[in-house]
Write a structure and sequence with these properties.
The complex is a heterodimer of chains A (293) and B (341). Helix content of chain A is 80%, strand content 1%. Chain A has 293 residues and is mainly α. The chains are: A mainly alpha (293), B alpha/beta (341).
């Protein structure tokens, strides 16, 4: 009677191995796609680097008829709008996440989770059009860094909120109850136990939001103003960002102009990967610390 | 925009399958490219299908650059383009030699929004100075000199241009490059280096919207878009020294005063003739000279003939200009050069 059991185990062993191979294959495909994308766009961006050298990153002018392509103002625009977006989105997201987990009764918290997730599902072009119609025209913000920053903030609030909520939820109830038992106020409980415990995860959540804000294309293209050479910190000035330039100019671009737009994509790709890597690193380090306590 | 062209592409793909089911052995032609000629393609397809129910034609838009690329990759049967192929790109085209068919002329209007000024006359050098921000007030001497008697206010000029790469920008800057030689410094292209204190709008509709909602604004859009948004537009001084209003008739007159090459390439910008409107753009349908599919080739032939002959009557209603007689005759003759298997 032992033999069938061995057979069964053998069969399941085989299935396990097949399953492992299949999942490894799926993971490999993702890496392969990522690698191929990186390779193709890097190769097709080479002509502009051949022409401009590293000046591509330091030149302020962008003049296709002169075959002169400098990405600096667009890199600045990308960083500046993303910074505005974070400035607005982080306090709101953390506030909402803390409200949902620490303050609101569960029957209010649950619907709020759905609502926030709903916001994450709205197509970006809808936000962009709303930005044009309401922010630029009705509130007279024009098309500017600030308008783009506000739209991006609205788009990344759901991401940062739902990640933060999950991180905050991992605070051991014992810690919180202990703090409250010591006679702390709810505010002190949050600042003394919840926030220190989830600090790493929260930074990670913010960084993932940052990655999304930097790469957002259509909404930014609609509201940022598409002005060239803007290196200002005035939020109401019209500007431009890397994804917006690519979306606007790709259709009619030729030769070196096309290569320059692809080089912008490479730069953006590298920047978002860097941000995501840093985010993952911070989250992992904080998770290790979490296991230790 | 990338998203809209993807959408149009998806529609085109869906369109491929549909007639096969509905009509049996139907022929489908797919085209993409110039958004300038899209309104004409739409009404022309509508009319053409009334007499050719067994054919289906899709035109996807997406911009001239996309049209030429799609044709070079042989993913469409015809392309719409406001400018010719570059020699280097043509060498890479999969289907070999190509034929150009001019299908319409379009006046590019200079639209403006200045309270109390209902008639405005401009010349190329003044337009150039305005768009590169050397003239920044409506009361500037240079503008006043061309508009004796007009009450020009002290309002600041707001320049609106296209945010997206565009054939209209290409033609407008090419016109300034030629007609305002020595004054215009931004050269020409689908995107140029606009000064940073100018405003950018998405598409012609976006530019018209900025001009319409901003006191003191000036911009450039195709006449059909100017009419659609009910904004005022200037009369422009032509090569003969006459101020001409942007009208289909003015654009057709421009088509009369130009030199047309044997392959039907030409530029209608800054044309000769008293009645010629100087900022006139043109657009072609481009096809491969040698067709590999008999049924498709036949369909293409009859659709091209419709575009350059019977369809021309549809143009004035949508604020485009029909080809002048001489050019139309050449285009009709060109249809015979299409080689079928």
């Amino acid at each position: 009677m032992n033999e069938p059991e061995i057979d069964l185990r053998g069969a399941s062993d085989y299935k396990d191995r097949a399953f492992a191979k299949m999942t490894a294959g799926a993971a490999g495909v993702v890496l392969l796609i990522l690698g191929l994308i990186a390779m193709t766009i890097t190769r097709r961006s080479l002509p502009v680097f051949h022409e401009m050298g590293l000046g591509f990153f330091t030149t302020k002018r962008w003049s296709p008829p002169d075959s002169l392509f400098g990405a600096l103002p667009f890199v600045w625009g990308t960083v500046f709008t993303a910074a505005i977006a974070l400035l607005i989105a982080v306090p709101i997201s953390l506030g909402v996440a803390l409200f949902m987990t620490q303050v609101a009764p569960p029957r209010l918290g649950k619907p709020l989770v759905y609502l926030i997730d709903l916001l994450a599902g709205v197509p970006s072009v809808v936000f962009g059009l709303w930005g044009v119609l309401v922010l630029s025209q009705h509130f007279d913000l024009g098309r500017s860094f600030l308008t783009a920053g506000i739209i991006l903030a609205i788009m990344i609030i759901p991401i940062i909120t739902s990640l933060s909520r999950e991180v905050i939820d991992t605070t051991p109830p014992g810690d919180k109850e202990g703090a409250l038992a010591m006679g702390t106020t709810r505010w002190e409980m949050i600042t003394e136990t919840v926030l220190p415990h989830s600090a790493g995860g929260l930074v990670g959540a913010v960084m993932l939001g940052l990655g999304r804000a930097m790469g957002e294309t259509i909404a930014a293209a609609l509201v940022i103003g598409s002005a060239l050479g803007q290196m200002t910190v005035r939020p109401l000035a019209p500007g431009n960002s890397m994804p917006a330039v690519i979306a606007n100019e790709w259709g009619e671009a030729q030769d070196l102009h096309k290569s320059a737009l692809i080089a912008l994509a490479v730069t953006l790709f590298a920047m978002t990967i860097l941000v995501n890597l840093i985010a993952t690193g911070i989250v992992q380090r904080s998770m290790k610390r979490g296991q230790g306590t | 925009m990338i998203k809209t062209s993807l959408f149009a592409g998806a529609l085109a793909v869906l369109g491929l399958g549909a007639p096969g089911i509905a009509l049996g052995a139907a022929v489908t032609l797919n085209g993409s490219g110039s958004t300038l000629s899209k309104p004409y393609q739409e009404v022309a397809i509508d009319q053409f299908r009334k007499t050719h129910k067994d054919m289906k034609i899709n035109y996807g838009g997406g911009g001239s650059g996309k049209g030429r690329q799609d044709l070079a990759d042989a993913v469409v049967d015809f392309a719409g383009s406001d400018s010719p192929f570059k020699a280097a790109d043509l060498a890479k085209a999969k289907g070999g030699a190509i034929l150009y068919f001019p299908i319409l002329l379009s006046p590019i209007s200079v639209i403006y929004n200045v309270a109390g000024v209902d008639k405005l006359q401009l010349s190329a050098p003044v337009i150039a100075k305005i768009f590169q921000r050397e003239i920044t007030k409506w009361s500037d001497k240079a503008i006043a000199a061309e508009n004796p008697g007009a009450k020009l206010p002290d309002t600041a000029i707001v320049v609106a241009h296209r945010a997206d790469g565009s054939g209209t920008t290409q033609n407008f800057t090419e016109y300034l490059n030629g007609a305002a030689k020595g004054v215009w410094k931004l050269k020409s292209g689908s995107t140029v280096e606009w000064p940073s204190d100018t405003q950018a709008g998405q598409g012609s509709a976006g530019v018209a919207q900025i001009v319409k909602s901003t006191q003191g604004a000036i911009g450039y859009v195709d006449l059909s878009d100017a009419k659609a948004s009910a904004v005022k537009y200037a009369t422009i001084k032509n090569k003969a020294g006459k101020y001409v209003e942007a009208t289909p008739a003015g654009a057709s007159a421009a088509g009369d005063g130009i030199e047309v090459k044997d392959n039907l390439l030409f530029s209608a910008l800054d044309a000769k003739g008293d009645k010629a409107y100087p900022i006139t753009a043109q657009t072609w349908v481009i096809v491969y000279a040698k067709q590999s599919d008999k049924a498709k080739g036949d369909a293409l032939k009859s659709y091209l003939m419709f575009l350059v002959k019977d369809g021309q009557g549809l143009l004035t209603d949508i604020d485009y200009a029909p080809l002048p007689k001489g050019l139309q005759d050449k285009a009709i003759k060109q249809v015979d050069k299409l080689m079928l298997p």
